[in-house]
Amino acid sequence: MEKRLNYCKGVVIAHGKxxxxxxxxxxxxxxxxxxxxxxxxxxxxxQIDSIMNILNNNIFKNKTL
Length: 65
Prior knowledge:
The protein is α+β, with helices and mostly antiparallel strands and 65 residues long. The chain has helices at residues 17-30, 51-55, and strands at residues 10-13, 34-37. It has a domain at 7-46.
């Protein structure tokens, strides 16, 4: 029996609580292999000005060059 790898196909950066709830609902109903990133479970909003700081975070760094 061959084991299939289950890896993340995409990342959702939730800017607030409503986007977080929407992304979680879509992920659970469609069974999508996506990861959802938010600050303090959506309690702190991510401003569009600081999106590059979020993307340069260690979480999003590619470990294989």
